[in-house]
Automatic annotation (TrEMBL):
Source species: Chitinimonas taiwanensis DSM 18899
Cellular component, GO annotation: cytoplasm
Transmembrane portions of the chain: none
InterPro entries in the cross-refs: Ap4A_hydrolase, Calcineurin-like_PHP_lpxH, Metallo-depent_PP-like, Pesterase_MJ0912
Protein family membership: Belongs to the metallophosphoesterase superfamily. YfcE family.
Protein name: Predicted phosphodiesterase
GO molecular function, one term: phosphatase activity
Calcineurin-like phosphoesterase domain segment(s): 1-211
Source organism superkingdom: Bacteria
């Protein structure tokens, strides 16, 4: 089964469209959305309708912290720019879209795979996986062979050997990585809607559960158009510049 893994869409219509078009060339059997459908970007309604459509056709979707904030269930404050976009987003959503965000689970499982937006040890606390120590904590929290998270925005891959040795890799886009064997793995596909690693191309990943092969993808898209939409909506200027520079 081929899974398309997308996370941190952040209301970026242009980026999500490009990723879905790219993924369609590989004919995934199932899509997995790892949270943060809203926030930062200018098209939350379109992005939510698109994700909801995929869920109706069998996609897996979990809740991100921006989704929780929009749904009114986030227990901690956000940075001023992020909070401003949440306040802008809420009145634009229809009741069924807000209900969708509220209904999303924090985690999901499929065969040997575990999915969460932030982490598997306390998904409701929204702590990041940013280091090998964080990855070791995550791999100790659940028994699954494969863990997929978002939240951190930068693509990353960690593994844990049977001897307890942790490895950390910066994946090369387009190169299939074999994950077979006794090692356990944690992968962060990178953000589709707001890359932050200096590469403005949208990020997502493909995982073949049969061959246990993972491929990180980068997809150029109309980031200038997405930034212009952020400015036209009157959202904070740094959010538009981030789409242009991925910094």
């Amino acid at each position: 089964m081929l899974l398309a893994l997308l996370t941190d869409l952040h209301a970026n219509r242009q980026a999500l469209s490009a990723c879905l078009d790219d993924a369609a060339d590989f004919s995934p059997d199932r899509y997995v959305f790892l949270g943060d459908y809203v926030g930062y970007g200018a098209d939350p309604e379109w992005v939510l309708d698109t994700v909801m459509h995929y869920v109706e056709w069998g996609a897996i979707a979990v809740r991100g912290n921006h989704d929780a904030a929009t749904a009114g269930t986030l227990r901690r404050s956000m940075r001023p720019d992020a909070q401003a976009v949440i306040e802008w987003t809420r009145p634009r959503l229809a009741s069924h879209q807000r209900d969708f965000l509220h209904s999303l689970p924090l985690t999901a499982e499929l065969e040997q795979c575990f999915f969460a937006h932030a982490n598997p040890w306390q998904p409701e606390e929204w702590e990041y996986v940013l280091s090998p120590a964080d990855a070791a904590h995550a791999l100790a929290a659940v028994p699954h062979k494969f863990i997929f998270c978002g939240h951190a925005h930068d693509p990353a891959l960690y593994n844990l050997s049977s001897m307890g040795k942790l490895g950390h890799y910066l994946p090369v886009p387009g190169q299939a990585i074999p994950l077979a064997g006794p090692r356990r793995w944690l992968a962060i596909p990178g953000s589709a809607g707001q890359p932050r690693d200096g590469n403005p191309a949208a990020a997502y990943a493909l995982f073949d559960t049969d061959s246990q092969s993972l491929t990180f993808r980068r997809v150029p898209y109309d980031n200038a158009g997405a930034a212009a939409a952020v400015r036209a909506a009157g959202l904070p200027e740094p959010l538009a510049r981030r789409l242009e520079t991925a910094g």
